[in-house]
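A protein record in our archive is deliberately plain, so that people and models can read it alike. The record that follows is passed on verbatim for readers who wish to inspect the format.
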Amino acid sequence: MNPYQQKKRWKYSLLTFAVVIASGSLFYTNYLVRNIAKSERTRAQVWAMSMKQVLASDDNDFLNYVFAVRDSSTVPAIVTDDRGDIELSRGLDPTKTNIKLEAEGNKKIIYDPAYFQSELAYMKKQHEPIKLSVLGNTWLVYYKDSALLTELKYFPYIQLSVIAIFLLTAYTAFSSSRKSEQDQVWVGLAKETAHQLGTPISSLMAWIELMKEKFNAEEDPLITEMENDVKRLEIVADRFSKIGSKPKLEELKVYDVVKDFVDYFRIRVSKNISFEMAGNPYLKAGLNVPLFDWVLENLLKNAVNAIEGKGKIKVEISGNKIKKQVFIDITDTGKGIPRSKFDTVFQPGYTTRKRGWGLGLSLTKRMIENYHDGQIFVRESELGKGTTFRIVLKHTRDDKQTAA
């Protein structure tokens, strides 16, 4: 199992564990809510029966007991007659009712119509009413959940949201800090590698010059290729030295830069693989040649590895003048990539080979996006037929003089 897949499995395991904890918390809270809701309905029924006893009994001692039971209920309730007119209420906003004294000394309760109708409609949605038969009339007792029960319903969601925000913030801060540390380590390692390569490369260049002089081999093709490879090592060292700093971009013809590297690369791979260059030769973009060659090298190596036996690699340059973009499509006739892996292939550590670090496409993506302000993605792929990677760069201008 490669490091990326192992990391992905750990993420899924932790996510599953978090879902189990959250589900357990919600299940237990809902269990408590159901039990409290049953208890509140029982209290509402007791309150309703106490009202019935108050209206039907003349026993003062018994009434005192009934009043105590009635007043102990904290469940908000409204009592209406069978026509829907409000008769009594309990546990609602006291500022919404007024007691008016009539001339004969009778008390009359005046309700705020809008408030009580709103509360009544809400109660009707929450629970079925409790029916009472009082002195030949039918009364309906509507009630709603108490403030405690309402808070308990929403508490786990609020709690889990707060925990999730905290964990997300902590994870983001930790990941950012760790990524910064890793970047510093990689930058330091890259610059040290470039420094260590400098001495043997200089020595090799000197040895090649001595060979030319001693054997009079200025035009020898083998020594010329050795010289090209040493220059290539020099370019690789230069690439590593540029990691961590903002490279300077030059306005160059994309076709020429790509063709120069393809010409260098094609003679170093199997003769069973053919190369084709096509497209507009006059489109320009901002490029850092050593780093961009590194991008092409990674993509072409992947294309070669994907081809089993004979095959073809085509590199096509095109553009969109309206969007001011230059497209570089690298197409191979290899084994292809599953659609589900289109994004995964750019993750650090992802590789389908037994050997390798799985960093090629990850570095490629970073060099295109961070250093060239462009994009790279799998444009299309079909298993058994091949893959096309597309690089998108900012189009600066066409070389009009060359075109003429």
Observations:
- The chain has a mean pLDDT of 80.
